[in-house]
Amino acid sequence: MMDNSNTNSAETLSSITNLNCIDLSSSDIHHSVSLLKQACLDCGFFYVINHGISQEFMDEVFAQSKKFYDLPISEKMKLLRNEKHRGYTPILDEVLDPENQIKAVGDYKEGYYIGVEVPEDDPEAEKPFYGPNVWPASDILPGWRETMEKYHAQALEVAKSVARVIALALDLDAEFFDKPEMLGKPIATLRLLHYEGQISDPSNGIFGAGAHSDYGLITLLATDDVVGLQICKDKDAQPQIWEDVPPLKGAFIVNLGDMLERWSNCVFKSTVHRVIGNGQHRYSIAYFVEPSHECLVECLPTCKSDTNPPKFPPVRCGAYLSQRYKDTHADISTYKKS
Ligand SMILES: O=C(O)CCC(=O)C(=O)O
Model pTM greater than 0.85? Predict the structure, then answer.
């Protein structure tokens, strides 16, 4: 829970939000579609349970993530992210809410990006979000790469299952997002996150993660049991109302990204969220799912009419994402200079 000192005139005390919960193992698809649709119309956030990834394996991924962050900063900096957005992002590397973080310098979190593994000599590696990953040496973190690769693959299957329910909720064929140019050849990025115990102070622009909406189709978020994630259903409201999203053991918190908001002509919402630090270490794992680089994101046929024309021009996924990353991350050349 946020404490009084963490509020300013533009926002009120937070309350706990009540998200719908989609059971991916349920045979009642109509019920799942209806729950998901209600969540997407309301705030674009929901829980997903019985998704097929075992708790034992989730625990292993979190344990491996913690081992990485326990390394000395000198070791972590050897794995600094590259221009393909692979590798380590130090504290303050990312500024998710530049407007409100003017007084601070960035997000008080460190991260590690792992994307789709494409060998350097593969022509596909020319694309902005494809290429080889950056991996810690196996003698330093044995089994780390294998664990993360396995998680990447399993999380993609969960994302595809969620995307089928989303497609039905948008009156599309269940397989709409399975096409080769969509999740057949996705840009899917796993990001391990660590909030190192900095207490947030919104009035001074200090956040674990500043307010933002995600860029892509959907994000699957796994968290430990430390609270911190908050959503704001109406970012234009004055004062803004921030609601805590409590962790739910074994569940993914799923949220819709801006690309899906564009695709659906704003029928489905991509909601602003942030992370408030309360002094405790917090670990989370975000899995950002986007279609292929070439995919043209243009208003879905089921989301437009004569009286409701498309609100956005079509955009290529790769170009759109490149711009969003550029807007929110430090220029890597600044690390080389220092
Ligand atoms: O760590 C969290 O709970 C949220 C992370 C997040 O919002 C992001 O990385 O986009």
Answer: yes
